[in-house]
DNA sequence: TTGATTTGACCGGG
DNA sequence: CCCGGTCAAATCAA
């Protein structure tokens, strides 16, 4: 056990070192790749020494295990548990990472885990079926702080500044296969629903969410969730704005990517922030002990009931208020999507040609 | 009591 | 003027 701990610490140290040298190494994809592999190796062997291998593969068979043979082939060099972590963490954490590194990544397309795709996209090669399609996206805009002016206005008029300037990312996620399929998969953040509208030409209403901590931390993040007309088992989720709440040490929401990219990498790769991040390991352990992420862990009470119907409840809602669990429903849903039309979740950035018809 | 959801009204861009 | 996004009062739920 002790050497497992020291291995973990070693891995964290490596991640830290990588972070420190990241600027210098940005132009050396090979070195970066090797560093990442080394970090993965260290964490993997740490995990092996913890002796949980059999336990979790037998007790908690992850749907990932039933995926396409070529996927498994691609992942054969990675420990199954690590794969699971990868799968469960490459959602929002990965997204956050991508936002911050995309400028570099698009050009260097270097890291071992993230390989450039013909056509300019980026694909998570290992541990996930996360596809990010970004054919012509120029750069990542800074977060739009101007949005915060909305609430502070004391005028009696209701200033409704639209968030059009904010970066917009479209994600397609399969509905959960088990449990309440009405619920859009959780993405790890806490959202508060603030509206729902029937959209012209769409069978299903669109639900509007903003970050629960919008007021407290002026977090501008928002998302829209809508069921696809042609595939009701899929949701199209449009994210606008960046979460700033997790940048605060006191902000409770997860994921809480630390300012350092290495920490985010570690998070994206193994699903845990290294101890150097202020987040404690405990909350993660608590979560990992509960394998029930998928079947409505974030489910709220509604299923039928609401007048609007489909797009439904908060992804965390009252039950998950300031949740400490980085629920992996989205990842689970991806893996669970066997009956759905696709196993992949795609991010579509502005300038792409999404198959979207509503926006 | 507090915080989330519902839902009709409001607002602004196209 | 239409439609999508947002507001906020009413309501619900823990």
UniProtKB/TrEMBL annotation:
<feature type="domain" description="WRKY">
    <location>
        <begin position="186"/>
        <end position="248"/>
    </location>
</feature>
<feature type="compositionally biased region" description="Polar residues">
    <location>
        <begin position="336"/>
        <end position="345"/>
    </location>
</feature>
<dbReference type="InterPro" id="IPR036576">
    <property type="entry name" value="WRKY_dom_sf"/>
</dbReference>
<keyword id="KW-0238">DNA-binding</keyword>
<feature type="compositionally biased region" description="Low complexity">
    <location>
        <begin position="144"/>
        <end position="156"/>
    </location>
</feature>
<feature type="compositionally biased region" description="Low complexity">
    <location>
        <begin position="296"/>
        <end position="305"/>
    </location>
</feature>
<feature type="region of interest" description="Disordered">
    <location>
        <begin position="134"/>
        <end position="173"/>
    </location>
</feature>
<feature type="region of interest" description="Disordered">
    <location>
        <begin position="295"/>
        <end position="359"/>
    </location>
</feature>
<dbReference type="InterPro" id="IPR003657">
    <property type="entry name" value="WRKY_dom"/>
</dbReference>
<protein>
    <recommendedName>
        <fullName>WRKY domain-containing protein</fullName>
    </recommendedName>
</protein>
<dbReference type="GO" id="GO:0043565">
    <property type="term" value="F:sequence-specific DNA binding"/>
</dbReference>
<dbReference type="GO" id="GO:0005634">
    <property type="term" value="C:nucleus"/>
</dbReference>
<keyword id="KW-0539">Nucleus</keyword>
<keyword id="KW-0805">Transcription regulation</keyword>
<dbReference type="Pfam" id="PF03106">
    <property type="entry name" value="WRKY"/>
</dbReference>
<dbReference type="GO" id="GO:0003700">
    <property type="term" value="F:DNA-binding transcription factor activity"/>
</dbReference>
<dbReference type="InterPro" id="IPR044810">
    <property type="entry name" value="WRKY_plant"/>
</dbReference>
<keyword id="KW-0804">Transcription</keyword>
């Amino acid at each position: 056990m002790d050497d497992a701990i020291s291995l973990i610490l070693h891995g964290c140290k490596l991640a830290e070192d990588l972070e420190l040298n990241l600027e210098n190494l940005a132009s050396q994809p090979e070195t970066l790749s090797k560093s990442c592999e080394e970090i993965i190796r260290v964490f993997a062997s740490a995990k092996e020494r913890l002796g949980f291998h059999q336990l979790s593969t037998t007790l908690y068979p992850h749907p990932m295990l039933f995926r396409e043979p070529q996927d498994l082939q691609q992942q054969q060099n990675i420990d199954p548990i690590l794969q699971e972590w990868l799968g469960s963490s490459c959602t929002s954490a990965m997204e956050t990472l991508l936002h911050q590194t995309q400028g570099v990544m698009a050009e260097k397309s270097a890291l071992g885990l993230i390989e450039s795709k013909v056509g300019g996209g980026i694909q998570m090669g290992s541990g996930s079926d996360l596809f990010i399609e970004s054919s012509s996206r120029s750069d990542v805009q800074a977060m739009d702080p101007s949005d915060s002016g909305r609430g502070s206005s004391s005028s009696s008029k209701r200033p409704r500044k639209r968030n059009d300037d904010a970066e917009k990312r479209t994600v397609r996620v399969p509905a959960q296969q088990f449990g309440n399929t009405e619920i859009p998969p959780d993405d790890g953040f806490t959202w508060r629903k603030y509206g729902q509208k029937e959209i012209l030409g769409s069978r299903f209403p669109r639900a509007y969410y903003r970050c629960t901590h919008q007021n407290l931390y002026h977090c501008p993040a928002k998302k829209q969730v809508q069921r696809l007309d042609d595939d009701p088992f899929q949701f199209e989720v449009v994210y606008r704005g960046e979460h700033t709440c997790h940048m605060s040490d006191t902000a409770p929401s997860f994921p809480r990517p630390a300012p350092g990219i290495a920490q985010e990498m570690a998070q994206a790769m193994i699903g845990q922030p290294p101890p150097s991040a202020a987040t404690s390991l405990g909350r993660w352990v608590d979560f990992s002990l509960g394998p029930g992420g998928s079947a409505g862990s974030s489910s709220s009470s509604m299923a039928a009931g609401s007048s609007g119907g489909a797009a439904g409840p908060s992804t965390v809602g009252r039950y998950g208020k300031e949740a400490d669990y980085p629920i992996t429903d989205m990842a689970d849903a991806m893996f669970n999507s066997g009956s759905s039309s696709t196993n992949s979740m795609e991010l579509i950035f502005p300038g792409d040609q999404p198959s979207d018809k509503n926006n």
